[in-house]
Amino acid sequence: MPLVAITYAPHVAESTLRQLASALPHLVSKAVECPEEPYDGDLRPGDVDLRFRPYGPLDRGGLDVVIEVRSKWFESRAANRQERVDLLHEGIAAATGLDDFGVYLSLPVAAWSQGG
To answer: pTM (2 decimals)?
Structure first.
């Protein structure tokens, strides 16, 4: 399950954030799709977790939006991670019209368990 943290500047419109909330689950799922965790296009609860947070008074960075994606490491994902994050960036730009944003893809060794 990808965990996605979206940090945004105060001037980013709520409509843009709503577009992100709508587009990111599918775009992230496509970006991290691999043989070990295939994406069938049918998102269910727990498949992608989005967390939105405004920049705090001490945060610094300069971009309007920073999107951090963490998804479990698999060799097949790691082999082309730059291509994956570049395609994700392009998809987000096309879906939202954002241009001043960055995407960080992290593939840690991890495990996930979910109930219900």
So the answer is: 0.92
